[in-house]
Structure formats: C-alpha cells, structure tokens
Amino acid sequence: MDTPTLNIQPGCFGGFFARRTQKKAPTHASALQESSQGLSHEGCLEITHTAEKKEDRYYSAFHDFSYGKQDDWWIVGHHEQLPPYLPKADVAARSGDISSLIEQSLDKINGKLRELSLKIHDHPETNFEEKFAHDLLTNFMEKQGFAVTRHYLGLDTAWRAEYAQGQGGRVVGINSEMDALPGLGHACGHNLIAIAGVGVAVALKTALEARRDVAGKIVLLGTPAEEGGGGKIILLERGAYKEMDVCMMCHPAAGAVHSTSIASTTSMQTIYAEYSGQSAHAGQAPWEGTNALDAAVLAYSSISMLRQQIKPDHRVHGIIAGNNWLANVIPDNSKMKWIARAPTSLEVSVLADRLINCMKAAAIATGCEIEVKLGPAYFDLRQNSVLAQDFTDIVGSRYGLPTLSGEHSASTDFGNVSYALPALHPSFAIPTVLNGGNHTPGFTKAARSEEAHKATILVAKGLALTAFRVLTDAEFLSKVQASFEQCTPGQLTD
Ligand SMILES: [Zn+2]
Ligand SMILES: [Zn+2]
C-alpha cells in the first residue's frame, strides 16, 4: 500500500499565515514586558502533500484546541483499532537494531511508567506545588542511573536528570510537565507528559549504552507550573536550556483517532488588575462608597463587548474575585485575572493593550484606583520543521499514526523554549467523551485510561527515535539548525 507523504519544508506557514503577516511592528504595544516584544514571526512550517489521494487525512485547518471537529474525535469505546502498519522506505532503512532497542526499552519499563502516571494522576498538584511528582520522578530517574538535581535553579519543584557518555557530544533536552488544574485534577493530562519525558530519556540512555562510540548527553527537565505559572520561562531565563542542541516534549489532547499533531499554539499574555475603592453601608450611606465590584463588572462588560471586534483566532477570557464581599457593604476591593491570546506575540500585545484600556476606563468611571500587573508572556510555538518531519515519518511509518497540522488556540510556556533553540512539541490524541476536551472532567478521566497510556508510549517512542538521530546524525542536526535559523524571530521589516 502506498503511504501518503507529508513533507514539511523549512520555511513558513505560507498561505495559512499570510493573512496575518505583519509588515510593520505596532507602535502601541507598550504595556507588555520587554522580553515579549518584537518576537512575532510568520510561522515556521510549510506543509505540502505529495499524495494525490487521501490528502484530507492529514490536513485539518481549524482553530480549536482539540484539533479537529468533534465528529472526528477519538471517542471512548470507538475506533480502538490501530490503522494498518504503513512502512516507508527511508524510515525503514534506519530501523535497525538500535531503533528496535529504543522501542524495546520503552516496552520494558511500560509497567513502571503506567504506575508513575497513575500515582501522579491520583495526587494532582497545581502550579509550583508539584512536590509529590517531584519526589516520585526524581527517585525513579536516580534508580535508572541518571544524575539528578532536585529543586533545580531555585524552583522547589523543578528538577533535572542527566546521563552523559563520552566527551563533546550533542545534548538532547526533554521536558516532563507535572502540574494539574485546581478542582479538575489532571484535566490537561500532564501525568502523561511526565511519563513520556521519563520514557524518552530512559530509552535514549539504553541506546547510548549500546553505542559506546557515540558521545552525547540526555537532559530531562521536570518543569513545574505550565498552567499559568510559566515554569519553563523561569528555567529558560536561569539557563536550564543553554547547553541543549534541541528540546522535545509532547502533549495529549482530544482529536482524531490515533493521530498526532505538529500544530502551533497561540501567544498568551496574562493580565492582573486590582481595583481599590471605599467601603460603605450599602443601605444607609451608599453614596459614601466607591464600588470596586462595579469597576470589575464594568471592565468585564466592556471586554465582553470588545470580543465582537477581535479576530476569530484571538481569545480573551477572565475572572473576577474579591475579598470580604457582602451584599450589604459596598465592596472596596476587586481583582481580575485576564488572559489574552493571539497567534503571534505582536498581536497579543495589541490585544492586551485594548483590554487594559477597558480596565482603566472602568476605574475612571467608578472613581476607583487601579493597579495593573502582567504575568508571564507565553510565546507562540515554533515547531522545528526538520524535527517535525522526522517525527511525522517515524510515527506514520512505524506505528501508523497520521500527523496533522494546523494551529491550536491553547498556549504553552514551551513556546518560549522554541524561540531559544530548535524544539518539537507534538500533540497526540487520546480517547475521551464528547465535549470532554482538555480542561474538562471528561479529559481528567481520559488521561487515566489504558488507551491514553498506550498512545503516550507510541509518541514517546517516536520522540526517542528522532532524538537519537540528533545524537548520531550530524547532517540531520545541521538541517535542524538551519531550519531554526531560517525562522529567526523578529524578522519584521520596518
Ligand atoms: Zn492545560
Ligand atoms: Zn497542558
């Protein structure tokens, strides 16, 4: 059977992103942190399809986190058979003993990985509180023969596990996320990301040990607080990624049965606003008060109206909170947390400014004081096209997993990593229920299933095989680096 070929060329998203190409940097993006400015780019992947038939199987242009219409989702209990094995010549040519060894290594620790995954799932911990996962995973990596650094670079729940062989080899980085969502548990499936990272690292170590002639280093980072805390951004700024030649991780999502995706994600800016007013008796003398809740409600309403005037691929969402609110007291305090998302950092900075204007206007209207603070800025995800192509070929040919392209409306702090060095962050589908995509109780359950675990192991095998090529194939790494350079951020002309 002929295999449709997905060729990913170094370049840009071309037509897909052309409509939002910015020729000129906006001048009113002053509200953002300096580090997030001027880093917009025009995308880094161009997907072409050489197959004349079955093209639709691979291409999906969508603007939804769950990459694909729900009609196509992998629903629990349905479509549980893998597609037939589809050999592809160039991948088959290097599917020698080492590739099999990498796969066998993951199969060998499969039971242990499942155990780790379930333990993390059963002990959900939120932003920077991943103590249980930190201890569990560092102890495991130590037993696997890695040199482990706990509480890495001043972050209590960050960690690093290293295995090195020889001198002067290349360095492959991998990331394991660990955090859950308040009230929802592992509704983003980071327990699966954690074990995928561990699995890739252990399999690479096995491969290096079998090839004593290869010098190389494997660095697995335990990265806290992806859900808003920007743990990777902190680690990046503190030098954790400096020595890596490439870095990889993967992420589960709802999607087409047994599929993976090399889609990009949106840039994201978190904005905190706090209003301060004056409390007063709401019945006896309301005119003596300055209502901070009114300010928040007014800002919320203004931003809700603003939504009509933003682009379809932009996102705005937020919440209101406050201290000691009572119905018979004019509230003197309110807090808001907003998240703005757009395909590029420049677009998100413009959007953030518009939100802040709504917040300031509400302060003026109500007479409240306002304090605005910015959270970490997540950059859009730059999938390295050469790494993505290799991963796509491997999982398509060896495991029959089609790889989709497109974009997600979610965001990741790995986006910032992808601006610093060549990076790969495939998503992969796990079976869930309708309306049970990421950040829902349905997905929490999905992330615990045996099918989700099996999908994770297959993707970990694909990542490990691509990573091993980085360690052993100098020409391949040159292409990876050339693709990264070609997509240098900040290429906007005047
Ligand atoms: Zn999430
Ligand atoms: Zn996530």
Automatic annotation (TrEMBL):
Any coiled-coil regions, as ranges: none
InterPro entries given in the database record: Amidohydrolase (IPR017439), Bact_exopeptidase_dim_dom (IPR036264), Peptidase_M20 (IPR002933), Peptidase_M20/M20A_hydrolases (IPR052030), Peptidase_M20_dimer (IPR011650)
Pfam families from the UniProt entry: M20_dimer, Peptidase_M20
Gene Ontology MF annotations: dipeptidase activity
Domain Peptidase M20 dimerisation: 276-363
Similarity remark: Belongs to the peptidase M20A family.
NCBIfam families xref list: amidohydrolases
Entry protein name: Peptidase M20 dimerisation domain-containing protein
The species this protein was found in: Hypholoma sublateritium (strain FD-334 SS-4)
